[in-house]
Write a structure and sequence with these properties.
The strands form six sheets. Strands 5-2-6-1-12-11-13-16 form an eight-stranded antiparallel beta sheet, covered by helices on one side. The protein has a six-stranded antiparallel beta sheet with strand order 7-8-9-10-14-15. Strands 20-19-21-22-23 form a five-stranded parallel beta sheet, sandwiched between helices. The protein starts with a strand and ends in an 18-residue tail after the last helix. By secondary structure, the chain is an alpha/beta fold. Helix 3 packs across helix 4, helix 16 packs across helix 20 and helix 17 packs parallel to helix 20. The longest helix is centred in the last third of the chain and has 22 residues. The structure holds 2-deoxy-2-amino glucitol-6-phosphate (AGP). 2-deoxy-2-amino glucitol-6-phosphate binds next to helix 10.
Length: 642
Amino acid sequence: MCGIVGYIGQQEAAPLLLKGLQRLEYRGYDSAGIAVQSGVRCDGLGATGEVLGVRCDVLGEGMKDEAGVRVVKRKGNVASLGEALAGSNGAVSGATMGIGHMRWATHGDPSDRNAHPHVSADGSIALIHNGIIENHAALRVELGKHGYEFVSDTDSEVLVHLIDHLWKSIPFMNFEGAVREALSIVDGAYGICVISSREPDKLLVARNGSPLVIGVGEGEYFVASDAAPIVEHTRRVVYLSDGEMGVITRDGYTVKSIGNIVCEKGLTELDFDLEEIEKAGFEHFMLKEIFEQPEVMQDVMRGRVRLDEGRIQLGGISDQLERLREAKRIVICACGTSWHAGLIGEYLIEEFARIPVEVDYASEFRYRSPIVGPGDVMIVISQSGETADTLAALRMAKEKGAMVVGICNVVGSTIARETDCGMYTHAGPEIGVASTKAFTAQVIVLTMLALALGKDRALSDAEFIQALQCLSSLPERVKRILGCSEQIREIAEAYKDAKNFLYLGRGYNFPVALEGALKLKEISYIHAEGYPAAEMKHGPIALIDEEMPVVVIAPKDDTYQKVLSNIQEVKARGGRVIAIATEGDEEIRELADHVMYVPKGKAFMMPLLTVIPLQLLSYFIATLRGCDVDRPRNLAKSVTVE
Ligand code: AGP
């Protein structure tokens, strides 16, 4: 989830763009850049310089900006871009229009050359992009046939060359037409801003799937991925909708559809402050990230779950899929919440692909003398991609000749770079230390992997298609659960003073019980344990009394009756039960003290539904106890030491 800003007006653009990017840094960052052009007003200097291979001329008074666009971009955060700008001997000064970008990498590691803006070969067009161009690989090949060379590994760069190609190859084509034509060719999600020295007084913007806002000032206009960088300049904004593009000059703006139909867009008055925007109106990043999961689930599956074609496309492992299918054994290694996702991965791969799987804590794997070697596949799961124990386990498995597949959220992270192949979870930056959306994204990636491995192997076509339909229905089902957050807050109120908690689940929901317990421990500091429900009789049942709340995950599946008896065993010892149950299940209401309902679904997808109320329960209990849920004590978002 990148950050985009743009400006056209009378003010010096570079400092405005830099400040705007600082406001978007909460969206995650691994590299940043700006592109400017002065158009009508210059500062009179006659200097020439090179910034990152793009010609940069600061022209004399009144001369038109024929020399192209000036770009400064750098790996790292906004501060490092600021240093680069300070060191670019005024290369970007005097310009009163420009675009800026904070990158959250999806394709291509964080680096200077993969940073945005991307520039056309002749330096006359600069483009920034937020989203994923799904058909970028095919377009690269096509443009390559026309002699276009690519300086980055990004999907975004194809767009600037495509615009340049269409502009040069179609007679009487102009800037707006070339951008529109290009957008009718690309597939995928985008929020873009484009400028060109060939028409230096125009700022073109467009969106499809990624947010874009135009801020309307007095003779000046601001553009951004959300209102954070705009609210301090103007409160009058225009929200672009999917399939719309804006043509902005200093004299005004027009919004049209990609199909060139003028759109009447009303002005919206912003009524919130900055702090709120960064959290999108949520009190904490954790709550925001919990509520982002329906969209994140769509992003994880975008271009991968191809229901209309009845297939799954996992670009990051497609060349290795056959080798994965032939694996004698799969070892999953991870830590914390990622380890819980790995446990669910074991159930999924063994059910759908019938390949034996074992799951190891990475920290234990590396210190026991594990039997792993050629013919084995290790899957390492890590949100940050920097967890030391997981990295060490990866390196050990590689040394022993196993193939290592990565499932990471941070693109270009160490683990992602050191694996043989892998899949990104595309959950966007996860700011809250307690992992939520990254967990569900990991489980969806594992589900897609298991289905891809099981297709034409242990899964019939009908079962495969049905599973794809289930996956595609997830975002709507999760939205329904999030709609019940108020009831979950009331339940949290009843248990906020508990000293201990027990979480029970069976089958796919056992790892969810572990995850629910971890979430509560992490942010509320209440001691909690997750257990396979049937294990309770072998010890933990001794803990149960009226002081011990027991969370029981009890959806209507093959083990439902067994779980009901576990609830009766708890009730018989005075325990208080919070049940996670399937909508419409009235029977369990008789037994449990409180019930949190989830939509019905196939057993394999239940973890993606039953974990949501547990995320919310832990969040509400922690906030009711006054805990700082975004920065819980003693914890780090990424554990890079042993
Ligand atoms: C989860 O909420 C915690 N932040 C922690 O357990 C985390 O899952 C663990 O440190 C692994 O991190 P990773 O996924 O970045 O490797």
